[in-house]
């Protein structure tokens, strides 16, 4: 039976997290930099515990004005501190709730930069390893973020996106460009393609193949809760088992 993790970026103060949570298997929780605070983190963790959803840290740039989606150039030491401190905060609050932090997924611009910049990818991977080598690091499928995580000795998860369009090289189309954001029907077809075949059809007729360990839906969409239910139903109806990536034993 094919299987895939279904993750969503939550705790960002812009969606109905409680309505999304029943349909996913993993949550990437904003750590107070690009969005969120201690109260939203605690509430999102409580929802994770109630629904049996795996909790992860979602560190991003401390740039709330741009929601962490503006690329920055931080010195190495500042980048390490940024990521480490957000993981530590999430870990501390998770432990308060009796929850074990399971993974890290960078947010927004930090995520995209780590997919193409080996130095940023290595800084993130080594910071995660030095904090807790049992943590899983999620990165964009087929990019240097995965390579850096593996080089650091971390377990990795190749991530693909349900509602974001791709170019032929397997990179996400920039927001604001045609095809960058997919409507529900197209996103559902793309999710099924990744989950069942690790392949999708691009708008020009070519086929893109990417390893798909975990499927992401952005929680800041206005329709995210309905979208999550639609994707969950389509995947399970097609015989795909939705489950988080197994922890280290």
Q: Write out the CATH superfamily name.
A: Glycoside hydrolase/deacetylase
Strand order of the biggest β-sheet: 1-2-3-4-5-6-9
- Rg, nearest Å: 17 Å
Oligomeric state of this protein: single chain
Helicity level:
25-40%
State the CATH topology: TIM Barrel
N to C succession of SSEs: EHEHEHEHHEHEHEEEHE
Number of strands: 10
Low-pLDDT parts are none
Class based on secondary structure composition and strand pairing = alpha/beta
Q: Which CATH class? A: Alpha Beta
- Overall geometric form: globular
> How large is the count of helical segments?
8
What does this molecule look like?
This protein has one domain (3-242): Glycoside hydrolase/deacetylase (TIM Barrel, Alpha-Beta Barrel), CATH 3.20.20.370. 39% of the residues lie in helices and 18% in strands. The chain has helices spanning 17-20, 38-51, 76-96, 108-116, 118-131, 144-151, 184-197, 224-237, and strands spanning 3-10, 26-30, 54-58, 103-104, 136-140, 155-161, 199-201, 207-209, 214-218, 241-242. Strand 7 (199-201) and strand 8 form a beta hairpin. Helix 3 packs parallel to helix 5 and helix 4 (108-116) packs across helix 5 (118-131). The model has no long low-confidence stretch (mean pLDDT 95).
């Amino acid at each position: 039976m094919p299987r895939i993790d279904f993750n969503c970026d939550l705790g960002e103060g812009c969606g109905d997290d409680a309505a999304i949570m029943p349909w996913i298997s993993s949550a990437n929780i904003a750590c107070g930099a690009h969005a969120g605070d201690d109260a939203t983190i605690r509430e999102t963790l409580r929802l994770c515990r109630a629904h049996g959803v795996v909790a992860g840290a979602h560190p991003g740039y401390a740039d709330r004005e741009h929601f962490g989606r503006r690329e920055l150039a931080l010195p190495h030491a500042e980048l390490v501190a940024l990521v480490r401190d957000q993981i530590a905060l999430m870990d501390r609050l998770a432990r308060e709730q009796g929850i074990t932090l399971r993974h890290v997924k960078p947010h927004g611009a930090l995520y995209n930069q780590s997919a193409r910049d080996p130095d940023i990818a290595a800084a993130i991977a080594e910071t995660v390893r030095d904090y807790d080598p049992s943590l899983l690091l999620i990165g964009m499928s087929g990019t240097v973020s995965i390579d850096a995580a593996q080089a650091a000795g971390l377990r990795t998860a190749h991530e693909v996106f349900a509602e974001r369009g791709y170019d032929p090289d397997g990179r996400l189309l920039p927001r604001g460009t045609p095809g960058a954001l997919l409507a529900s029907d197209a996103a559902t077809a793309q999710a099924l393609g990744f989950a069942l075949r690790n392949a999708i059809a691009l708008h020009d007729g070519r086929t893109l193949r990417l390893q798909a360990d975990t499927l992401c839906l952005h929680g800041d969409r206005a329709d995210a809760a309905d979208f999550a239910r639609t994707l969950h139903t389509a995947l399970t109806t097609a015989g795909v088992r939705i489950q988080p990536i197994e922890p280290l034993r």
